[in-house]
Amino acid sequence: YASYDDLLNELQSLIPAGTTIAGFAPRSAAFIFDQLLLFLFALPLFIWTALAQQTSLADNWGWTSWPSALGLLLLPFLYIGLISSGRRSLGRILFQLRVVNSYGLPLDRQKMMLREFMRCLPVITLTWGAFATTNSITNTFVVVFVIANIATMLIRRTGLALHDYLVGSSVVLDLSPSKNQQASNLTSYIRSL
Questions:
Q1: Do 78 and 130 form a contact (C-beta atoms < 8 A)?
Q2: pTM of the full structure
Q3: Cβ–Cβ < 8 Å for 105, 176
Q4: pLDDT (tens digit, 9 = 90+) per residue, 62-82?
Q5: CA-based, 20 to 30 A from 39: which of 74, 103, 127, 159?
Q6: Residue 17 bridge partners (DSSP)
Q7: Which conformational region is residue 23 in: left (phi greater than 0), alpha (psi within -120 to 50 degrees), or beta?
Q8: What phi, psi does 171 have (nearest 5°)?
Q9: Dihedral of the CA atoms 35, 36, 38, 43 (nearest 10)?
Q10: Percentage of the chain modeled with pLDDT above 90
Q11: Dist CA 151 CA 147 (whole Å)
């Protein structure tokens, strides 16, 4: 390593985030908080769409609906990109949750992206269904997916949801000290050697 800071950063990334599996209530609360936040960001597009349908823009509905549909579809993908870059969502920060692999380390980028895509799949499907021709297959898929996700979390003692099983992740309570505290503890330990 070029410096002790590089070594400390590498060692700090290997410290497990936690091992206490988060229960249904904090996970659900964080998910609902995140989805409401996404909805608030999407609200201007919903309002634009509603106004376009009710006003003189209704004659040009095809022209006005596609920008809204594109924006509403891109919003979850922006969220997925943000989360898969290593950041936590506001809901996870608020409820002190962290997504980890089976060793307690942060999930790698590809698995995190796949996991978040599966979490957002019902929202993406419903958003697309609102603009495309809605059919019962879309609604049935969303209902079955959400029920299967919740059922696996409630029935299994591990507290893992369907998307956790598919990518090998779990959600733990983040009760660890801050990164600065961890770094100072690690520095003190290394200097004591």
A1: no
A2: 0.71
A3: no
A4: 555 667 667 777 888 888 888
A5: 159
A6: none
A7: beta
A8: -110, 125
A9: 140
A10: 10
A11: 6
User: For the chain, what is the HEC assignment?
Assistant: CCCHHHHHHHHHHCCCCCCCECCHHHHHHHHHHHHHHHHHHHHHHHHHHHHHHHCHHHHHHHHHHHHHHHHHHHHHHHHHHHHHCCCCCHHHHHCCEEEECCCCCECCHHHHHHHHHHHHHHHHHHHHHHHCCCCHHHHHHHHHHHHHHHHHHHHCCCCCCHHHHHHCCEEEECCCCCHHHHHHHHHHHHHHC
Indicate if the pLDDT at residue 127 is higher than 90. Answer: no
Q: How far apart are CA 11 and CA 43, in angstroms?
A: 43
